[in-house]
C-alpha cells in the first residue's frame, strides 16, 4: 500500500449491530461495559442502540437505559439506529442522554424492506425525509444507510442504478453509508457504487458497512479505502448480523480491520491489542465458543511494516 493514504475512521457497531443478532440478551450493565472497552481501545464513534420494536429485536429493548448508562466525554460520539418517526421520538425524549447521531436505514430492495421494516423502499424513503428534517432541526448528525446495497437475500442482485436513485431521492444528508448487509459484495462493486453515488450526493462523505459472510469483507474494506470512503463500520469480536436476513453472519471485526489498516499504513486510531482483548471478553459474555475475529486467537504481529 502506498505511503500517504489518509486515515480512516472505524465506526464501532458491535453494541448495536453486533448484539442484535446474538441469541443471548445481555444485561444493560454488560452492554455499557462493552462500550467502555471500545472507548478504551480508541473507538470514538460508537453505535450503541437501536430504537426498534422490542418484540422484534429484544436485544435492543433497553436502548434508553444503555444511552443513559454510557460514559460521556467530548471525544466520544454515540449513534442510535432509527427506523421510523417513533424511533426518533424516543431519541428526542432522552434529553440529556440523547445520542449525537441518528442512523436511518433504507433497504435497497422492496422485498427485504417489507420483511425488515414492513414498508416498501419508496415508503421508507418518504419516511426518511420526514425524520431527517426533524432530526437535523433537533441538532442530530444524520446518516442514511442504504442496506442490501450489494445484493438482496430474497430477490438477488441490486443494481447500481437502484442505489443511486435511492440516494438521489433521499434529499440532504450528513453522510451516506453503503451496506453489504448479507455479505455478497466484492471490491469492484465498492468502486462502482462510490462512483455512482457521489454525483447525486455532492459533499456527503461515504461510509461503508461490510459483513464477512463470504470472506470478502476485508477486501471490500480496502477497496473502500482506495475509493475514498472516510469511515468503515466494524464490530469488536466480529459478532452480529441482520436478524431478518437468512444465514447472516457477523460484521467485519474491529480488531482484524484495525490490524489490516495499521499494517497498510492507514491510521485508524484503534489499539489492536485492546480491541482483540475486548473481542474475547464479549465472546465470553455471549457464551460463544469463539468469536469470528482472528486477532484474539492469532495474536498481534509486532511492529508496523
From TrEMBL:
Which UniProt keyword terms apply here? Lyase, Metal-binding
Top-level taxon: Bacteria
Tell me if Metal-binding is a UniProt keyword of this record.
Answer: yes
- What's an example GO BP annotation here? L-leucine catabolic process
Quote the SUPFAM superfamilies the UniProt record gives.
Answer: Aldolase (SSF51569)
Database matches in InterPro entries = Aldolase_TIM (IPR013785), HMGL (IPR043594), PYR_CT (IPR000891)
Per its UniProt record, what PROSITE patterns does this chain match?
PYR_CT
Q: A Gene Ontology MF term for this entry?
A: hydroxymethylglutaryl-CoA lyase activity
User: What are the Pyruvate carboxyltransferase domain coordinates in residue numbering?
Assistant: 8-276
Q: Which family does it belong to?
A: Belongs to the HMG-CoA lyase family.
Q: What is this protein called?
A: Hydroxymethylglutaryl-CoA lyase
Amino acid at each position: 500500500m502506498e505511503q500517504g493514504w489518509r486515515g480512516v475512521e472505524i465506526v464501532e457497531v458491535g453494541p448495536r449491530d453486533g448484539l442484535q443478532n446474538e441469541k443471548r440478551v445481555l444485561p444493560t450493565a454488560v452492554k455499557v461495559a462493552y462500550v467502555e472497552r471500545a472507548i478504551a481501545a480508541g473507538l470514538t464513534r460508537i453505535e450503541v442502540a437501536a430504537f426498534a420494536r422490542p418484540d422484534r429485536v429484544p436485544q435492543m429493548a433497553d436502548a434508553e437505559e444503555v444511552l443513559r448508562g454510557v460514559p460521556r466525554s467530548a471525544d466520544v460520539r454515540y449513534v442510535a439506529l432509527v427506523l421510523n418517526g417513533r424511533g426518533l421520538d424516543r431519541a428526542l425524549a432522552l434529553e440529556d442522554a440523547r445520542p449525537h447521531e441518528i442512523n436511518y436505514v433504507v433497504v435497497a430492495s422492496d422485498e427485504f424492506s417489507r420483511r425488515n421494516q414492513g414498508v416498501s423502499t419508496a415508503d421508507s424513503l418518504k419516511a426518511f425525509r420526514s425524520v431527517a428534517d426533524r432530526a437535523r432541526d433537533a441538532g442530530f448528525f444524520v446518516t442514511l444507510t442504504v442496506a442490501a446495497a450489494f445484493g438482496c437475500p430474497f430477490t438477488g442482485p441490486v443494481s447500481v442504478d437502484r442505489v443511486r436513485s435511492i440516494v438521489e431521492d433521499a434529499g440532504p444528508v450528513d453522510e451516506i453509508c453503503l451496506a453489504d448487509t448479507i455479505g455478497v459484495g466484492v471490491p469492484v462493486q465498492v468502486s462502482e457504487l462510490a462512483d455512482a453515488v457521489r454525483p447525486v450526493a455532492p459533499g456527503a462523505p461515504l461510509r461503508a458497512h461490510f459483513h464477512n459472510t463470504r470472506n470478502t469483507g476485508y477486501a471490500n474494506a480496502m477497496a473502500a479505502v482506495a475509493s475514498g470512503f472516510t469511515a468503515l463500520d466494524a464490530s469488536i469480536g466480529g459478532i452480529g448480523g441482520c436478524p431478518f436476513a437468512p444465514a447472516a453472519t457477523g460484521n467485519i471485526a474491529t480488531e482484524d480491520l484495525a490490524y489490516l489498516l495499521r499494517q497498510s499504513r492507514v491510521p485508524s486510531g484503534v489499539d489492536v491489542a485492546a480491541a482483540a482483548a475486548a473481542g474475547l471478553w464479549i465472546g465470553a459474555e455471549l457464551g460463544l465458543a469463539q468469536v469470528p475475529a482472528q486477532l484474539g486467537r492469532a495474536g498481534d504481529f509486532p511492529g508496523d511494516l
